[in-house]
Amino acid sequence: MLKVFADRGGTFTDIVAVTNNQAIIDRLYQYPQRFLIVPLPNQQWVIVYKLLSENPEQYQDAAIQGIRDILALAEAQPLPTETIEVVKMGTTVATNALLERKGDRVVLLITKGFKDALRIGYQNRPDIFAREIILPTLLYEQVIEAEERYDAQGNQLVPLNLEQVQNDLQTVYNQGIRSCAIVFMHSYRYPHHEQQAAKIAQDIGFSQISVSHQVSPLMKLVSRGDTTVVDAYLTPILRRYVDQVASQLPGVRIMFMKSDGGLVAAEQFQGKDSILSGPAGGIVGAVQTSKRAGFELVITFDMGGTSTDVAHFKGEYERQLDSEIAGARMRVPVLAINTIAAGGGSILFFDGSSYRVGPESAGSNPGPACYRRGGPLAVTDANVMLGKIHPQYFPSVFGTDGNLPLDPDIVIQKFTQLAQEITTVTGDTRTPEQVAAGFMAIAVENMANAIKKISLQRGYDVTQYVLCCFGGAGGQVACLIADTLGMKTILLHPYAGVLSAYGMGLADIRAIREGGVEQTLTSELIPQLVQLMAALEIQARNEQTKVEEEEIVRKVNLKYKGTNSTLTVDFALDVAEMQQAFAIEHKSRYGFIQKEKDLIVESVSVEVIQKMDTPEEPVMTRTRALNKAPTPVETVQMFTVEQWQDTPVYQREDLEPEDRIIGPAIIVEKISTIVVEPDW
Fold first, then answer.
1. Which residues contact 260 (CB under 8 A, 6 or more apart)?
2. Is residue 509 within 8 Å of 262, Cβ to Cβ?
3. Are 290 and 502 in contact (CB under 8 A)?
4. CA pair distance 371, 369, nearest whole angstrom
5. Residues near 104 by Cβ (< 8 Å), separated by ≥ 6?
6. 622 to each of 632, 633, 655, how far by Cα in Å?
7. CA end-to-end span of the chain, whole Å?
8. How far apart are CA 86 and CA 94, in angstroms?
9. Integer Cα distance of 36 and 34 in angstroms
């Protein structure tokens, strides 16, 4: 049987497969350059494979093609689905649709008088001095104002005008709109009118109906409405992708990674849960492998081709309820991930006075200059120029036919031209390699600042943490990032280059349900909270199948009365226990506490976690004598600390437990490159 874990990133799609089929392994051993095969202790093997996410000349979908390549199937051959046990995936399909504004056409049905509420939003101005304020593009195409109104106490002030809603929805349906977002005032607590409107939309024939009391059952009309619109906008495009995958894998159990770090069955995967699908797999992979290695305090660092994602872990996954992604506000639990537009494909350019790195990315097509598709200089090219990436240790998947190695000559040529241009404009006589090193210093500083934002600026001492680096480019800058932050320990898992995909295999099924409360925290409130959580737990369990091993996590979101900054603590029957937990967290985050203020319970959440069968770690034993050092395969020139240095190159498979390698050195493997800087 074959278990497949796939992560479709912006540049590469990573596949990690686990099998006990000897025939598959014997066949793949004939292609050592394409597939990494790692034996496990229980007569199983892990297969690691990478391919370009976009290669329209060769295939339609990278994840399906990856499975075909592993099984050595020709294009016309059907997949032998009886040999595939499960496919767990993360996807950027919805994220890309949101970024590029290519979701479905949406009509917004909202309470009369609030037609422009979502457009007005919260009047936030991220760039306070901008004279031309460009609002994000609205995701909905038309607005219908429904004659209806409940007040905050549940009194029906205006009954829903069913005939008006019917006529208006029919009109937009006739115009070709098939996705409907329904958002009424106070419906998170009093959903009757939304239910009536949804029934009308269903009878008319709308294929996607997102109602706010189901999508985000919490107070705050604007963020609840935005979340509902995002769900209506993205779910149809996600459903088409899921159906396309399922059509090629009939009868196979397919699961997708949600933004909160849990898996969900393909048929229950929704747009609102999909925005951080890919990055979430990386966080889970980094955290679980770090815990297996004995680390409890983790900074995860995922550097891919297009962007870099960083996250903080201290005993449990950190989630945030309110987030803004690609100009869209969301009010659903997502992993707290800080993303910056700096990756291996980030474009390098000189603006006439200073070096710039990103935020534009060369992607995978055309990709960096060295990809042989006529692309611009990018961060990856800087590492080629500095001798940190060598074409002979990189897969030969470049050029229009996808069979050529990286091209170092064009990189040297372009950096030489850039150095001459900089000299002409500024009089600064830097060599091409010094220019490349300057660009790398800027990229590293940008990434280190992203880590400071989630750690130092929130009161955490990063020197006590392990830096778990992964992603195709993570190992190339790991030492530089750690040096910048004063971190002493770096963890690079054997599957670091594909850890987002491996994380799909390490994840559990998770269902989270929230309920709004907005009442003062007192002992009299506890029975009401217990009752609400019991109802939420039933809802969460309805999403899952019965299993032996499961865990229930109950949380409350608290804030000081009169403030808007909520903090999440564990639910307890003892009010004093929750008050103390909140005070400790508030002091750590903000540096002060306000004992005289009451605490408000804004909302509660219940998470039902079903444990899944996860792959074992590869067993590594030492066969060499302790005093015998590993032998490098060659010595190359690498530019570091302002000079070219002789640098040994080691194959990762030649290294054994307790080997010591002193920098500068390069460790190469099939799926990533690790650069050991001097003094490491």
1. 273, 280, 317, 319, 332, 333, 334, 335, 510, 512
2. yes
3. no
4. 5
5. 178, 179, 208, 232, 233, 234, 236, 237
6. 17, 19, 9
7. 42
8. 22
9. 7
Are 358 and 346 a contacting pair, CB within 8 Å?
yes
Domain ranges, ordered by start, for the chain: 101-238, 346-442, 509-610
For CA atoms 186, 192, 193, 198, the dihedral sign is positive
Cβ atoms of 255 and 90 within 8 Å: the answer is no
Provide the pLDDT for residue 329: 84
β-strand partners of 647: 636
Judge contact between 500 and 352, C-beta under 8 A: no
Beta bridge partners of 600: 520, 559
**462 close to 454: Cβ distance less than 8 angstroms:** no
Biggest CA-to-CA distance, the chain: 85
Token digits for 251? 């009868």
- Residue 365 structure tokens: 């097509």
Lookup result for tokens 């955290």:
287
Closest CA to 320 of 463, 208, 212, 453: 453
d(CA 653, CA 671): 12
The rounded distance, in Å, linking the Cα atoms of 218 and 235 is: 20
Closest Cα to residue 542, out of 333, 265, 202? 265
pLDDT tens figures, 16-70 = 999 988 888 888 787 777 788 888 877 888 888 888 887 877 888 888 888 888 8
Per-residue pLDDT tens digits for 409-455 = 999 999 999 999 999 888 888 899 999 999 999 999 989 998 998 88
How many Cα atoms occupy the beta-carbon half-sphere of 579 within 13 Å?
13
641: left (phi over 0), alpha (psi -120 to 50) or beta: left
Lowest mean pLDDT among 149-158, 303-312, 584-593: 303-312
Q: Which two tokens stand for residue 460?
A: 């955490």
How many helices and strands (H and E) does the chain possess? 16, 30
CATH classification for the domain delimited by 509-610, as one of 1.25.40, 3.30.1120, 3.30.70, 3.30.1490: 3.30.1490
CA atoms within a 13 Å half-sphere pointing along the CA-CB vector of 429:
0
Residue bearing tokens 């019917």: 166
Gap between the Cα atoms of 214 and 395, Å rounded? 46
CA distances from 48 to 70, 144, 290, 497, 672 (A): 9, 50, 20, 9, 12
DSSP lists the bridge partners of residue 310 as 301, 338
DSSP character at residue 254: E
Using the structure block, give the residue that is written with the tokens 């208006």.
Answer: 168
Q: Are 605 and 536 in contact (CB under 8 A)?
A: yes
Chain centre to alpha carbon of residue 64: 21
Using alpha carbons, select from 401, 503, 504, 335 the residue that is nearest to residue 52: 401
- Which residues are bridge partners to 209 per DSSP? 180
Residue 313's H or E segment, with its range, is strand 308-314
Output the pTM of the full model: 0.84
Q: Kindly give the pairing relationship between strand 36-40 and strand 44-52.
A: antiparallel
Write phi, then psi, for 187 (nearest 5 degrees).
Answer: -75, -15
CA-closest candidate to residue 53, choices 4, 104, 92: 92
**Exposed/middle/buried for residue 268 (C-beta within 10 Å: 0-12, 13-18, 19+):** middle
Could you give the 3-state DSSP secondary structure of residue 265?
strand
Of the candidates 411, 265, 375, 287, which has an alpha carbon nearest to the alpha carbon of residue 337?
A: 287
Distance separating alpha carbons of residues 118 and 226, to the nearest angstrom: 7
